[in-house]
Design brief:
alpha+beta, single chain, four-stranded antiparallel beta sheet, 2 helices, two-stranded antiparallel ribbon, globular
Length: about 140
């Protein structure tokens, strides 16, 4: 069982929903690379409104501007592991915002060998944390 408690670093990557990496959504590539790097978890959050460097407001309320809403990928792990992952973002993120914030992890428990729940990429589900049991 993996536990992450105590001081941690939160990595947030904000990109556009339509941003891609080799014909794949950029946010999905970031999540899969975070998993491959052994990070504790990654979640993707779709914004309902926002603007970036272009100052153009993207919102769900206007159909013509709802095509490229902001997307945030959030990763929390130890500072060392998150900082080791940053060079991969240099390759992937050419336009967007990357922030690092110190935080405190209260509890994270990974799967045990007896857990039979399907992994997110095996059941066709999207990106996110596996949300261990609180039994």
């Amino acid at each position: 069982m993996t536990r992450l408690t105590g001081p941690a670093l939160r990595l947030t990557i904000v990109v556009g929903e339509c941003d891609t990496w080799h014909h794949r959504p950029l946010y999905a590539e970031i999540v899969h690379r975070a998993r491959a790097a052994g990070l504790a978890g990654a979640s993707v959050f779709r914004g309902i409104e926002g603007f970036g460097a272009s100052s153009l407001v993207h919102t769900q309320r206007l159909l013509s501007l709802s095509e490229d809403l902001p997307v945030a990928v959030v990763v929390v792990d130890t500072e060392e592991r998150v900082r080791d992952f940053l060079p991969q973002l240099d390759e992937l993120v050419t336009g967007g915002l990357v922030t690092l914030d110190p935080c405190e992890a209260v509890r994270y428990e990974g799967r045990t060998d007896g857990d039979t729940a399907a992994r997110p990429d095996e059941d066709g589900g999207g990106a996110g944390t596996d949300g261990g049991s609180t039994r």
